Amino acid sequence: ASRGLKDKGVVVYTVGVGKDVSGTELEDIASGREFVLRTLSFEKLPTIAEELANGCADAEVGSHSLSIVFS
To answer: Using CA atoms, how far apart are residues 46 and 37, in angstroms rounded to an integer?
Structure first.
């Protein structure tokens, strides 16, 4: 599902919530293992979103645009 984006150079992160989330599926969707985040509860999502947004804001984007989408 994310192959087209990754082929265009988009870095795709995934966030798995709960203990029954498939790590393999998260890794397949994400741009790599280092882009997979996990939490046991939805209550932790605001913290994860903030960390992700801060990490992306610090990234070197040069002349490229940066979009963060939480869905």
So the answer is: 13
The DSSP output letter for 42 is G
Q: What is the pLDDT of residue 29?
A: 92
Q: How many CB atoms lie within 10 A of CB 1?
A: 7
H/E element holding 55? Answer: helix 45-57
Which segments of the chain have a pLDDT < 70?
1, 56-71
The residue among 33, 32, 67 whose CA lies nearest residue 52 is 67
Task: Read off the tokens for 61.
Answer: 């984007």
* Residue 60 DSSP symbol: -
Its pTM stands at 0.73
CA atoms 40, 45, 51, 52: torsion sign: positive
